[in-house]
Design a protein that fits this description.
This protein folds into 2 domains: 170 residues, Rossmann fold (3-Layer(aba) Sandwich), CATH 3.40.50.620; 77 residues. The protein is built from 11 helices and 7 strands. Helix 2 links the parallel strand 1 and strand 2. It is globular and about 55 Å long.
Length: 276
């Protein structure tokens, strides 16, 4: 089982680095260990765009303070990229190309030697078109290099008291739109409003899938029975108040990757270049 020493060794192969930092557990662990190993020769950077859910930037800032790493933000404009707006199965490639292009420019301007992502080995077999963008920009993946899977990440994050150790995954808001539905700021904002309204009811792990005029709520197994029972009316009302004409609650527990599960496995040439 990999441990702290393995991750420190992987991070230490670079003299300095910018960490692509969402504030989720994976990038937070990389940032925490980078701060330990590289000190002031590392910087956590969070990308801000219409696809970032409300509260995520504040959360990232809080984690950065807690783990003691310098933190900055950049603005990305993935919506200016036709491939991203088109929202095909390769959407994440266009998003990550925008991100890594801007981080690469920043690294060059500031003299940082490497870019780090938060990808772990469990990502290798998943549908991750952003991995091609990472490879093209020579992004390093210390968790992969150290042999860390998701369970290893959470275990070490707890050991190091990383505040986001138990944080549910929160991919960009565009992931709520089915492939082929054009990504636009209005749809992203509507999803965000709906998710924030459902979270305000006390639900923790959820997605609101943007199905045209309908918002479909997916909830974690621990919350599903309440949402289908006494909480149903409140959940439906929250989604409708966010701007949807109708709302439904998926009777099956939420599972990450709903929209990509049926896609083909990536070709062999891409398997070792995961995206965060």
């Amino acid at each position: 089982m990999p441990g702290l020493a393995d991750l420190e060794e992987a991070v230490g192969r670079s003299e300095s680095a910018i960490v692509a930092f969402s504030g989720g557990v994976d990038s937070s662990l990389v940032a925490a260990v980078a701060a330990r190993v590289l000190g002031d020769r590392t910087l956590a950077v969070t990308a801000v765009s219409p696809a970032l859910a409300t509260g995520e930037l504040d959360g990232a800032r809080s984690v950065a303070r807690a783990i003691g790493i310098a933190h900055e933000t950049i603005r990305t404009d993935e919506l200016a990229r036709a491939g991203y707006r088109r929202n095909g199965p390769d959407r994440c490639y266009h998003c990550k190309t925008e991100l890594y292009s801007r981080l690469g420019w920043l690294a060059s301007a500031r003299g940082f030697a490497a870019l780090f992502s938060g990808a772990n080995i469990d990502d290798l077999g998943d549908w991750r078109p952003g991995l091609r963008a990472a490879a093209e920009h020579e992004v390093r993946h210390p968790l992969v290099d150290a042999g860390f899977g998701k369970a290893d990440v959470r275990a070490l994050a707890h050991e190091l008291a990383v505040p986001s150790a138990d944080k549910p995954a929160m991919p960009c808001l565009a992931s709520r739109l089915p492939f082929g539905t054009e990504v636009d700021p209005e749809a992203l904002a509507q999803v965000d409003r709906a998710e924030q309204a459902v979270k305000a009811l006390g639900f923790r792990e959820l997605r609101v899938r943007h199905l045209g005029a309908t918002g479909r709520v997916e909830l974690g197994a621990d919350d599903l029975s309440r949402a289908l029972g006494e909480g149903r009316e409140d959940v439906v009302r929250a989604v409708i108040d966010a701007g949807y004409a109708s709302a439904e609650i998926d009777p099956e527990p939420f599972r990450s990757g709903t929209l990509t599960r049926r896609l083909h496995v990536l070709p062999k040439s891409d398997e070792h270049h995961p995206a965060s």
